[in-house]
Amino acid sequence: MFKIVRREEMAEGTVILNEIEAPLIARKAKPGQFVILKANEEGERVPLTMAETDSEKGTITIIYMVVGKSTAIFRDLKVGDEYQDVIGPLGKATHLENVGNVVCVGGGTGVAVLHPITRGLKDVGNHVTCIIGARNKDLLILEEQMKAASHDLRVCTDDGSYGRSGFVTEELKDILDSDKDIKLVVAIGPVPMMKFVSKITKEYNVKTIVSLNPIMVDGTGMCGGCRVSVGGETKFACVDGPEFDGHEVDYDELAKRLQAYSEDEKKCYEDYCA
Ligand code: FES
Asked: What's 2-90's CATH class?
């Protein structure tokens, strides 16, 4: 069993942070890897990329948006409660190397996934500019942490309530226009955001990495639930990813597969909340 030792609510209670005792995972995990959690015996297996690990304390931190029944069950766990299963670390770690100037782009809870990757890219010597965005100021997460993890933080909100008014892609375009020496862009967030970031960086011929979070079941490459098309080939995000070349991903297919169970999920969530 995996005990929750810290719990925080963010973004008006729609996003939850859980720090969980998981010493073996904390010792091995690297930026970009994920875990699969199950709250109880009948629970759904939910994949979440780790936002933080502390090998000395023996804890991992996950940050998730409450979007359905399973994440609502997670939300209702308090400090001292336990997850029945936490499996990991899974997936390939981010390749961290000094390439020069890097831009990290995060949207929504993708910012949580981006945080350890940003810090890792800075630690190996890159100059890291970071752009984070949300629909409005209240939904923005981890601003202070991202400021500390990067050299230069830019903030965008869709409604203009904080930072630049507009999408992260507009800020990215301005940076690419003003600095011709960007070597790498890392984009993590909603599928449309990653799609449009990749579209822009392709025009500028800048290598782009995205982290995908498709539906997963076993997390070990056996079930095929997490399949995505990358460069015309089928890849399993759980073992081949979760990070892929952003210019090669079929985002429309990914978005369609993510929507496959949305009606069932909505009904389960409504029944759980009733
Ligand atoms: Fe089953 Fe990836 S989750 S193959």
From this structure: mainly beta
